[in-house]
Structure formats: structure tokens, C-alpha cells
Amino acid sequence: KFGAIKEKAQEAAVDLSAYKNVWVFAEQRDGKLMNVALELIGEGYRLAKEISEDTKVCALLVGDGIDHLAEECFAYGAEAVYMIQDPLLKNFTTDGYTKVIKQAIDEYKPEIVLYGATHIGRDLAPRIAARCNTGLTADCTRLDVKVSSYIDFAKKNTTLDTSTLDPDDPSTGIKQTRPAFGGNLMATIICPKTRPQMSTVRPGVMQKRDKVEGATGEVINVKPEITAADIRTQIVEIVKSAKELVSLTDAEIICSGGRGLGDASGFELIQKFADKVGGVVGSSRAAVDAGWIDHSHQVGQTGTTVKPKIYFACGISGAIQHLAGMQTSDIIVAINKDADAPIMEIADYAIVGDLYKVIPAIIDEWDNA
Ligand code: FAD
């Protein structure tokens, strides 16, 4: 089956020069843009300008009654907005969104399409990639421009067959980096023969641009060809999940607890701590696996990627898979009774001690401050 897919992709090898611009799927829910959409507009802008002066970063907005979101996309760096609106697209459906985005890609031929690695992005991107006969790199943590340097690197340093890659190919490609093998190595992936190049990117990893109030750009209204018959699912009710209520991604302060809490009741102290400092509760996977807290709180490679202003790691050792989800936090405070725990190496403030003594002391200080 994979052989057939590969053949199909090779047959689909396209005139790469027909593709231009970087698109960001600007995910919105209830008429509000997701943070990751703004982060990707920032990253898309950086890539676009590295490719060429006249390459644009464009936001792709899909929904209904969402005209107001174009302004926010422009304020964060989008130079154009492709707007696809229809009452049938008011709520996300896999069928509906896949169909209309594929239509827009066929018509406007973006060179790169980025999606947030959210539930919706992870659902959409592979379907669209398959329909476009192109590749997709999921869960990227880094993107770079220029394939040729990669090919040179691969030729010198690996035994891979690079004969099908043309180092003089003038087209620009992106090198997509993602953790592999449980975070123990970083894989670099390219998409040399087909377009668009597609990636899902973890929330919290890329930088937003500074907001420029009043920035404007072109809005291109794309008429979707869609009927109710195209959508095989019907939304009966939308129930907010615990994950949305937790909102780790957008939190400015996170207080996370790990196995060092000893048992589930330790999270009562972490909750008290979070309430005091205005943060939300996170956790390591060990605490989730022990059944002490719901997975929606988990930070890390198989949980949520976060980038708060302050991250408190309480009784967490700092395994690579946990670090993968929080190491870009602005300030990391580790509370651990083991001075040699790996988390201490990346912590800005390392407090060596029993968390059951340290956290109440911080809470007391807070009250007295
Ligand atoms: P431990 O490693 O057991 O650390 C507990 C720490 O608490 C120790 O450092 C100890 O010194 C300290 N401690 C103990 N008592 C106290 C006390 N009273 N006061 C202060 N400190 C104390 N992990 C994640 O977190 N997120 C992920 O997304 C994730 N994904 C994974 C994906 C894969 C494919 C794999 C293989 C693993 C993944 N893991 C993930 C698991 C990860 O490898 C670690 O097992 C896990 O992070 C350990 O959790 P922990 O730090 O809470 O526990």
C-alpha cells in the first residue's frame, strides 16, 4: 500500500515554481483565534521573508461570520487573508474543512501550508496532504528554509540515496524538524518533489510577532463549493472538554506536579499554589499515569507544549519528554529534593528541598508580600 502511495506521489511531482507564498491555517473557535495561529503567522512571516522579499505570509480563515478576525491576523504579521465562509462551515467538521481548504490550495497554490498541531490541525493536515498528493511532517518544533544545504549535508554525512535530490534545484524548500524515537533524536524531514510542503507545528514553540494595531492587507474571499451532502457528520451539541477549561497553552503561570507529590492529594497543594499565584495546574506524565490527575493537565511530548512566563516544576525530575513540552518557558523554577535531578540543569531558580515544606513557605511569603 505504501509503495502505491509513493508511486502516486512521484507521479504527482509538480512544477514547483507554480507554488508561492506561505499559508497559515488560522484556527479559530467560537470566532476567537487560537494562540497557535498567531504564533504560526509569526513563523510564517520569518520563513516567507527568508525565501524572498515578495513571498507573503497569508492567513487562511475558515468559518462563518468571522470577518473581524482578518484584522487580528494583519496585526500579527499576515500580509493577506484568504477567507472561506459559509454557514455550513460555522463549526469545524473534518469533511467540510478538508474539502474547502483543498479547493483553495488547488486554486491558489501556496508553497507551504502550516497548521497548529491541535486536535483540529492534526485531523485536517494529513487528509489535505493525502488529497494533494504531498507530504506532511507532523508535530514540528523547528522550521528552516533552503533544502540545498540539507542535501549537501546529507551527501556528506549519511548513506542515504540522495541521487533523486537536485542540489541545484532553485526552488526553496523547508527543513522540518521534529522529535523522534521518544524525543531521543531530532529528525529532519524535507518534501523535495511535491507541493505544498505541509507541517503541523506544536503550540507554544514559535514566536508571535509584536502586534501592530491598524495593520492592513488584502482580503481574498474564496467561494467554497460545498453542500450539506458533503458533510457526513452532524453536530448535535458542543460540550467543552476539561482540556479547554485547563487552557495550559495560554497560561502565563503554570504550577506542575510530578511523582514527587507522593499521591493524588498532593495536587490539592499544587492547586492551592496555582490559585495563589494566578496560575493553572500542570503535571508530568508519571502523575497522570498514576491516576492522580487528568491527562488534560499533562505537559510534555505526549501532552501539551507550553511557554508560560513562569513554570514551577514541583517534584518533577526533568525527563527529556517532559522538557520537550516546557523548556522554552521564560522562567523555570524547579522545586526538588534532589539537587542532581536533570530539571535543575535547565532551571533558572533551583530550590532544593521537600516540596511539602517549600510550597507552603512560598504561599506564606506571597500572603505577607
Ligand atoms: P520522576 O522521574 O519519578 O521524578 C520525581 C521527582 O520528584 C524526582 O526528581 C524526585 O527527586 C522528586 N521528589 C520526590 N519527592 C519529593 C519531595 N517530597 N519534594 C521535592 N521533590 C521530590 N513525561 C512527561 O512528563 N510528559 C510527557 O509528555 C511524556 N511523554 C512521554 C513519551 C514517551 C514516548 C515516553 C517513553 C515517556 C514520556 N514521558 C513523559 C515520561 C517521562 O519519561 C518520565 O517518566 C516522566 O516525565 C517522569 O515524571 P516525574 O518527573 O513526575 O517522575
From TrEMBL:
Q: Which domain of life is it from?
A: Bacteria
Keywords assigned by UniProt? FAD, Flavoprotein, Iron, Iron-sulfur, Metal-binding
The UniProt entry, under PROSITE patterns, shows:
4FE4S_FER_1, 4FE4S_FER_2
Q: Which GO terms describe its molecular function?
A: electron transfer activity; flavin adenine dinucleotide binding; iron-sulfur cluster binding; metal ion binding
Q: Name one GO biological process term.
A: fatty acid beta-oxidation using acyl-CoA dehydrogenase
Among InterPro entries, the record links this protein to: 4Fe4S_Fe-S-bd (IPR017896), 4Fe4S_Fe_S_CS (IPR017900), DHS-like_NAD/FAD-binding_dom (IPR029035), ETF_a/b_N (IPR014730), ETF_a/FixB (IPR001308), ETF_alpha_N (IPR033947), ETF_asu_C (IPR014731), Rossmann-like_a/b/a_fold (IPR014729)
Q: Per the similarity annotation, which family is this?
A: Belongs to the ETF alpha-subunit/FixB family.
* PANTHER family in UniProt: ELECTRON TRANSFER FLAVOPROTEIN ALPHA, ELECTRON TRANSFER FLAVOPROTEIN SUBUNIT ALPHA, MITOCHONDRIAL
**Annotated protein name in UniProt:** 4Fe-4S dicluster domain-containing protein
